[in-house]
Design goal:
Number of helices: 18
CATH topology of the largest domain: Rossmann fold
CATH architecture of the largest domain: 3-Layer(aba) Sandwich
Strand order of the largest sheet: 2-1-12-11-10-3-9-8-4-7-5-6
Oligomer: single chain
Radius of gyration: 35 Å
């Protein structure tokens, strides 16, 4: 049991580290020896939330509810957020929470009044889940990013670059997977000579490898995500009439077993945000925050090239006023180069059941600031549900004191919406009408099909012309032979035209048939009947 003096010193220690000049959100109250300390609030300055963060902990320790609390507090401060809802349990943000004795006690201990409130949300989907459709075109990925997503080597990536260049030069829009497959087939067959003449040699085995990678992506459901109408990331920045930031929930419950699709979507989204948003400078709060639940899915199937790309974007995107927060079981799920970029760390309890677990806990404890008030690797195993170790960056970029924190309860529903409530949110969507209409304009697939058809028709007509020429030549030879057999004295009939020989009749009939077939073929090319 801590003495009054130690508690007072601890309170001063926490408050000094959480004294910010700008706006901050209250995450909870600090604890010492397992008990909350009054008037020792744990805060996070809005100004540094573009420095990214981590929410980690074992299953059932409250990670998702902490994510929910973060999104709520950001919304109340006018900051929109995007939530990757892998487990399907974040839709409750649309409905107010309900109080009980434990919540009353918890908020009393923190020194914050509990005020249930529904917040504005938008439900999105890249799969068959109900929600506003999110799509992106192949062209928006570009050759470099697409090659990284497909895990291609330099030679294969070079072919993809040539493909994009050919499509740009010939006004062939690359929109969806049909366009990508058709273009790859074309440059490996009918268009190969044209491509190699203009852009250099291409390898058929390499194209076959690329095609297999595309099929793998397609089998994970990417055809629902790749296409038009492309989502405009500025639509994440909406607010309601009260000035609360819109919480965009991307429903991904049906792609847990499709990590390639998930990492593809995540990388394309981050890249689009980085390319679209202007530089934000040194602002008092972020423009947008993204929360990635079950973050290990982003990294476990990613190639080294893809991981490098994610790391680069995470380093650069904070200059756009965007914060990214990963939610996962262990910090070791996040690559070290990415983990080193995360300024906010919220660590829920970890369980030490095996020697491997204990080693992982020790490594995790080394990521946190030293403190005289906790044995970090020990307290990590003793935290209860809704409790976590918290350290953030202050306004000068210095880590705040490490605090075992009693986290506030969500003010929205701690459960999912019913099917009826989900449909109501979708019906009231500001963006549904804009994005839910399917668009399939003429693109590379259709244009190349027409080009191949024209080439086949032209080839057929050339064959017909060649056959006619052969027949005409044969006709002349036959006539010459007939003429040589005739006698110098020509017998003429006294009445009517001279009768044609049987040979002439056969030649005339064959010639007429051939001319008619040729004419029909030529008119077919011109679209005439």
């Amino acid at each position: 049991m801590a003495t009054e003096k130690k508690i007072a010193e601890f309170r001063d220690y926490i408050n000094a580290g959480n004294a910010f000049k700008k706006e901050a959100i209250v995450l909870g109250g600090a604890m010492l020896d397992g008990e909350p300390v009054s008037d020792a609030k744990v805060k996070i300055p809005l100004k540094t939330l573009n420095r990214h963060g981590l929410i980690a902990g074992a299953t059932g320790t409250g990670k998702t509810k902490t994510l929910q609390v973060m999104a709520e507090q950001l919304s109340l401060n006018g900051v929109p957020s995007v939530l990757m809802d892998i487990k399907g349990d974040l839709s409750g943000l649309a409905q107010p929470g309900s109080s009980n004795d434990h919540i009353v006690w918890r908020h009393g201990a923190i020194g914050e009044e509990y005020k249930p409130k529904a917040l504005p949300i938008e439900l999105f989907s890249i799969s068959k889940e109900p929600g506003t459709r999110m799509r992106s075109t192949i062209s928006e990925f570009g050759p470099v990013l697409l090659s990284k997503i497909l895990g291609l080597n330099d030679t294969q990536g070079g072919i993809v670059t040539i493909m994009f260049k050919y499509c740009d030069d010939n006004q062939l829009p690359l929109l969806d997977l049909k366009d990508l497959r058709k273009t790859l087939q074309y440059i490996n067959s009918e268009g190969k000579k044209e491509i190699e003449k203009e852009y250099g040699k291409i390898s058929s085995p390499s194209i076959s490898t690329i095609m297999r990678k595309v099929v793998e992506l397609e089998q994970q459901g990417a055809e629902l995500f790749l296409g038009e109408r492309s989502f405009e990331v500025n639509d994440f920045l909406l607010k309601d009439k009260e000035g609360n930031g819109k919480i965009s929930i991307i429903r991904l419950a049906d792609i847990q077993n499709k990590p390639k699709l998930f990492s593809t979507f995540m990388l394309s989204l981050l890249a689009e945000i980085y390319q679209t948003f202007p530089e934000a400078g040194d602002s008092d709060k972020p423009k947008l925050c993204l929360f990635i639940d079950e973050a290990h899915l982003v990294f476990e199937e990613a190639s080294d090239e893809l991981l490098d790309q994610i790391e680069v974007i995470i380093k650069l995107i904070r200059s756009k006023g965007v914060g990214i927060f990963f939610c996962t079981q262990s910090p070791t799920d996040i690559p070290n180069d990415v983990l080193g970029q995360l300024g906010l760390k919220i660590q829920h309890a970890l369980r030490a059941f095996t020697a491997k677990d204990r080693k992982s806990i020790k490594q995790t404890a080394e990521n946190y600031p030293l403190t005289d008030y906790y044995d970090t690797d020990e307290i990590i195993t003793q935290l209860g549900i809704g409790e976590a170790l918290v350290t953030a960056l202050n306004e000068k970029g210095i880590p705040t004191p490490l605090a075992a924190t009693l986290l506030r309860a969500p003010i929205t529903r701690m459960g999912i919406l019913t099917d009826v409530e989900i449909q109501e949110v979708i019906n009231n969507s500001e963006l549904g009408e804009k994005y839910n209409k399917s668009v399939d304009r003429e693109s590379a697939h259709e244009i190349l099909d027409k080009k191949i058809k024209r080439a086949q028709d032209e080839e057929h007509q050339a064959e017909l012309r060649e056959e006619q020429e052969k027949l005409e030549k044969e006709r002349r030879k036959i006539r010459e032979r007939e003429s040589s057999r005739r006698t110098t004295t020509t017998r003429r009939r006294s009445v009517g035209r001279p009768r044609k020989s049987n040979t002439d009749k056969f030649i005339d009939k064959a010639s007429t048939t051939l001319v008619r077939e040729l004419t029909r073929g030529l008119l077919g090319i011109l679209g005439l009947k």
